[in-house]
Amino acid sequence: MKKVLGNGYVRLVDVMGSDLSVVNSARVSYNKATNELRPEDEKLINFLARNDHTSPFRHATLQFEVYAPLMCARQWWKYLIGSSHQDPFTAWNESSRRYVTEEIEFYLPASDAWRSKPENSKQGSGPCLDEKIGGEALNRLLKQIDYGMENYNWAIENGVATEQARLFIPSAYGLMVRWYWTASLQGVAHFLAQRTDGHAQSEIREYANAVKELATERFPVSIAALLQNL
């Protein structure tokens, strides 16, 4: 498990396959299989990635549990459904506050972690602001959270349905949410190519780097080859 943004994390839950799965999937047309990854197999993986022969990479899958701010979750999901690469093996299941009242947590940037607006772009961010401004921003955010949680707790205590009481939960984009994400090896690599890029939002880039570390531990040759050629 990789810790991200304080209480956030990425956990690799399950894996099907290995670099060897990619090799054997590619060579099945020749009725050839191997039980050990050899140098020529690594060359084959790089050849497949370089020439966009990607179907063998879809015979391996990874399942992650992610705990992250809602702003990261929605950005993550929008990428998956809006990407030109539609991975047919993607699955997403998220915890629902209609059914559970698990502990409510929020992502709180430290006073020295509030970034400035970029000078030449409508999105993204620039250097960190002065800590005085950051401290005031954090203080205002905490006040907003306290006020919203007071109303949420009042609603729960007075019998309001959980699915409506959650309307009071404040700072929606900072609310920590939990989900399972399952994708093919190719799908994971496409996500990493986009979200580890320097133009990606800082917070989701930290999560993508955690995914990359975990995926690379299990598919070192394939992840490197795919990211080099996407």
UniProtKB/TrEMBL annotation:
<keyword id="KW-0808">Transferase</keyword>
<dbReference type="Pfam" id="PF02511">
    <property type="entry name" value="Thy1"/>
</dbReference>
<dbReference type="InterPro" id="IPR036098">
    <property type="entry name" value="Thymidylate_synthase_ThyX_sf"/>
</dbReference>
<protein>
    <recommendedName>
        <fullName>FAD-dependent thymidylate synthase</fullName>
        <ecNumber>2.1.1.148</ecNumber>
    </recommendedName>
</protein>
<dbReference type="InterPro" id="IPR003669">
    <property type="entry name" value="Thymidylate_synthase_ThyX"/>
</dbReference>
<keyword id="KW-0489">Methyltransferase</keyword>
<dbReference type="GO" id="GO:0050797">
    <property type="term" value="F:thymidylate synthase (FAD) activity"/>
</dbReference>
<dbReference type="GO" id="GO:0032259">
    <property type="term" value="P:methylation"/>
</dbReference>
